[in-house]
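Write out this protein's structure.
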Amino acid sequence: MRDQPHIGIDFGTTTSAVSWWNPKTNAPEIIRNEHGDEKTPSVVYRGEDDILIGKPAWEQLHDVGQMDSGMQAAVLGRTFLSVKRLLKANLPLALPDSNLVTPVELAADILAHLKSSAERGCFGGKKVEQVSLSHPVIFNKAEKERLKEAASLAGFKDCRLVEEPLAAIHGYLASGAQAGNNILVFDMGGGTLDLAFLCKDGDEYHMPIPPMGEEAGGDEFDRVLYDHFERKLEQEHGIRFSENGTCNLGVLAQCRKLKEKLTSTKKGRFTHFADKANIHASFDLVRDELEALISDQVERAVKMAKAMLEKIEAGGFKLDTVLMV
């Protein structure tokens, strides 16, 4: 089995990544995608004639404002974000041509794309059929089965599921970093917040305290910005981003981009063109305003961390390392 190609996939709500164990360096390494990026946006466009994964699908959303109404409807109706969250219910999703697609199938699209990147980039085109696939601690049995089903549809014959905190600490140590014996992993991603306390027993880590997790992360930050700008748009122009009240994915993508920009700059600008109303709106946002808008979400994470620290202390354990992912 060790001679068979094996990869690890971090299937994320916002972005995903694939890695392998490089026998030349004897260390894990990220496999870059066809665009040279270490991370692939977890975005799927299910077109009539083609399927776009990652950057091409993501960039289409940024161009929606320059499209005519027909093209906008086609792109927005066929593009899917936060696929990982959709696995919770796995409800069929309608495409503009009335065909249906399930979140499991969309997850399989992403996993197959990452699989292909690995086969081309590291294995000379040889098929990779073994994968270690990480998942949040809050995934229940049904969600884990859906993830394994997606892996099977993507072409993997052997899928090992690994809880994300365990994957994080093994990856951290494999990189050569040092850690103690009692580790708190704080993992806040695009869709979930995982908190896990890991104790070392010999060469392995186990969780003596049940992990904690909930749906919280970058997705909430994006939606907070979306709602903020929609209120301003309605106050100043009397219109909303979507006529039927559904989420405008093109606007949501711009909110995410602005959020990411404000991690390195102090000020950004949001712009929106409403074709039918012939309105061009723009709103400035400074980093302090962003932090105020997401303060409730951050406080939720702080409360969870405090609750986990109380459980660690009540269990008689002494924390020596915190790993923030």
